[in-house]
Amino acid sequence: MKARFEPGEQAGFGALQGHVGNADLGESKRFGALQQSRNDLLPDDLLGPRGLLILNHPPILETRRLHWPDEAACAHFAQTLAAQPDIVHARLELHGPLGAGKTTFVRHLLRALGVRGRIKSPTYTVMEPYRVTGPSGQPLDIAHFDFYRFTDPREWEDAGFRDVFAQPGLCLSEWADKAHPWLPPPDVSLHITLQPDDTRELHLCAHSPIGQRLLTLP
Ligand code: ADP
Ligand code: MG
User: Fold this and answer.
1) What pTM was computed for the model?
2) Is residue 45 pLDDT above 50, yes or no?
């Protein structure tokens, strides 16, 4: 069984060393130990109690931009991604403010992967698990996380989240920033920006070879 995370794919996770993007995430700056004077550059939730950077991003190996004029475009992208062989062992993070469309994208992806029935948002449960038949006929486990209410680090162990991320399958995380530094690095991060005309700009970042392959979309 292939490990979900190979050492070579795990670069860039040193303590107090981060890869922090600006609002446009296309340009990223590497910070060492971050001093208070630089804190105004960072959203509050990236900072620890003493004002030091606690969120570490893996390197960005590749990026891609998309535009979703409507939800049908989001659904189409989800279907394309679901057809990629690497999706069955990927970690995806969905970033964007409330209402950006993170859960909607996950719902379309889960539907495209064969999930039937109601797809609840894990806002209160933190995690919703699914099992479908994967493309190869084998069971595919999928975990949909929403870490918005994740506040107790003990939950990471007690609720078995560590095990979920260590097992084969697909992990989809909303509000991943709130679970750092426990969360392993993603293969792909999707940053959704809601535009004034209700369309969405999407910035995709690949952080591993799996992520790079996933971004090689037709
Ligand atoms: P989030 O999980 O980021 O908070 P949701 O997925 O719950 O956001 O979406 C919030 C609202 O935006 C929903 O009413 C949904 O129908 C709408 N929405 C989501 N994605 C799109 C999209 N790509 N195009 C148009 N409307 C969308
Ligand atoms: Mg949501």
Assistant:
1) 0.79
2) no
